[in-house]
Write a structure and sequence with these properties.
The complex is a heterodimer of chains A (about 130) and B (about 350). Chain A has 4 helices and 10 strands; from the N terminus they run βββαβββββααββα. Chain A has about 130 residues and is of the alpha+beta class. Chain A has a single domain, classed as RNA polymerase II/Efflux pump adaptor protein, barrel-sandwich hybrid domain (OB fold (Dihydrolipoamide Acetyltransferase, E2P), Beta Barrel). In chain A, the strands form 2 sheets. Chain A has a 7-stranded antiparallel β-sheet with strand order 5-8-9-3-2-1-10. The mean pLDDT of chain A is about 95. Chain A is globular, with a radius of gyration of 13 Å. With about 350 residues, chain B is an alpha+beta fold. In chain B, the strands form 4 sheets. Chain B has a 7-stranded mixed β-sheet, sandwiched between helices. Classes of the chains: A alpha+beta (about 130), B alpha+beta (about 350).
Chain lengths: ~130, ~350
């Protein structure tokens, strides 16, 4: 997955840059920990979020978890297919399981969040 | 508090189970996936470790009369080899716990919820007559496995005597499973055909391994919860507490006593005059699951709270239970407040799921 140049928040969201947009979802580790994802609630296009602000929820069979934006920006796309296929969050979190695309307002925030290596170290220490 | 472990704890860990605290025990919530384990039980056969459940043995010449005085079931007419679902009721008709009573050759076996073992014992002990009834807590020396699903009888028949296929529903027999002395009943908590198998703790590992080798899928408490909710079976602490009565829980059919029992006056009054609230199912119209504690509304007014809620893996939509005012009818639209949104739901009769009739 290193070729995707993923970065992570401590609350287990990832962000990768694609065509200058921040593509956001949850990490494979977080998806594995939750178990079968059965519902994803995402915002409307045009909504603005600051870094670490809640933008939606993801629900497994047993639990409801909040989603936090790893960077600041305005929503330019949401993955509406997740309403029909929430299981993609488990099976392909970095691909078909993406959640949001943001136009970043402060791209330098990317320097403040975890690299893949730092994130892997973070989750293996718990 | 130190979490307790069943005799199968090491086996759960080696199977890669995710362990969670439940009723003071460290229990497997899932091995592979709750949805996959749920479907294994609906379509094939699953195996659950439910050794955390409590077992009380009641014997002596006054045993039947004593039990008949603490539950609304007709214990006096429970024949040897039969099992009945009932509740310990308190003086106001509320439910202390729900349980199964098994009548064996020389004693009654009571199976109670793990989280209520101490509470039940404290409730029953002062009610025991001075002589004629012996009650012992056998929870620590008894392991309990639940083998559930349409293929459960075929699997168990390969390793048990007497032939479990001949055992009627809600019946119990003593025999052997994989060489262990076992009490086997045709009961369960999943809405499927199946068996519950009581063995001494030292034999639990052998029986567990043997049933997995015969093709049963190990299933955790996560699937147990979605299976029981689809089947409309109440869970203490969710659908039941000390203030809910069997009549309110739409389980008046379990009230069959011909004798005096604790709480009878209030339960009789409710049977005759009705209750102000009753337990109903909610079928969500949208995809967002209603969860425990979410408020239910009618015409903008709060009318109750969700007891249990989940996505129903066999049905494909979210389901929930709630105590609602008695004038809310089946088939009516209500709303559940999910975060800041009002989500539409339809009231339905329990259960949500009934197993298909099989020809064999």
């Amino acid at each position: 997955m290193n070729d995707m140049n993923l970065k992570f928040s401590k609350s287990h969201e990832y962000v990768r840059i694609e065509n200058r947009l921040a593509v956001i979802g949850i990490s494979q580790h977080a998806a594995d920990q939750m178990g079968d994802v059965v519902y994803v609630e995402l915002p409307q296009i045009g909504k603005a979020y600051s870094k670490d602000e809640e933008f939606g929820v993801v629900e497994s069979v047993k639990a409801v978890s909040s989603l936090y934006s790893p960077v600041s920006g305005t929503v330019s796309a949401v993955n509406a297919e997740l309403l029909e296929h929430p299981e993609w969050v488990n099976s392909d979190p970095y691909g078909k399981g993406w959640m949001l695309k943001l136009e970043m307002t402060s791209p330098t925030e990317l320097d403040q969040i975890l690299s893949q290596e730092q994130y892997d170290a973070e989750v293996s220490s718990h | 508090m130190q979490l307790r472990r069943t005799p199968l704890y090491d086996r759960h860990v080696s199977l890669g189970a995710r362990m969670v605290p439940f009723g003071g025990w460290d229990m497997p919530v899932q091995y592979s996936s709750i949805v996959a384990e749920h479907k294994a039980v609906r379509e094939n056969v699953g195996l659950f470790d439910v050794s955390h459940m409590g077992e009380f043995l009641v014997s002596g010449p006054g045993a039947a009369e004593f039990l008949a005085s603490v539950v609304p079931a007709n214990v006096l007419e429970l024949a040897v080899g039969r099992v009945v679902y009932t509740q310990f009721t308190n003086a106001s008709g509320g439910v202390v716990d729900d349980l199964l009573i098994y009548r064996l050759a020389d004693h009654y076996l009571l199976v109670v919820n793990a989280s209520n073992i101490a509470k039940d014992w404290a409730h029953l002990e002062p009610l025991l007559p001075a002589t004629g009834v012996m009650m012992t807590d056998a929870s620590d020396r008894t392991a309990l496995l639940a083998l559930q699903g349409p293929e459960a009888a075929a699997v168990l028949a390969q390793c048990a005597t007497p032939d479990p296929r001949l055992l009627p529903a809600f019946s119990v027999q003593q025999g052997q499973v994989l060489g262990a002395d076992a009490v086997v009943s045709r009961t369960g908590y999943t809405g499927e055909d199946g068996f519950e198998i009581f063995v001494p703790t030292e034999d639990a590992g052998r029986v567990w391994e043997g049933l997995l080798a015969l093709g049963a899928t190990p299933c955790g408490l996560g699937a147990r919860d979605t299976l029981r909710l689809e089947a409309g079976l109440p869970l203490y602490g969710h659908e039941w507490d000390d203030t809910t009565t069997p009549v309110e829980a739409s389980l008046a059919w379990t009230v069959k006593s011909s004798t005096e029992y604790l709480g009878r006056a209030e339960i009789d009054r409710q049977l005759a005059h009705g209750t102000r609230r009753r337990l109903l199912g909610l079928k969500m119209i949208g995809r967002a699951p209603a969860r425990e504690g979410y408020e239910v509304f009618r015409d903008g007014q709060p009318i109750g709270k969700v007891c249990s809620g989940t996505l129903a893996p066999s049905l494909g939509y979210p389901i929930a239970t709630a105590y609602l005012p008695a004038d809310v009818s089946v088939g009516q639209r209500v709303q559940v407040k999910i975060r800041e949104q009002m989500a539409e739901a339809e009231t339905v009769r329990l259960p949500f799921y009934r197993r298909p009739k099989r020809s064999s």
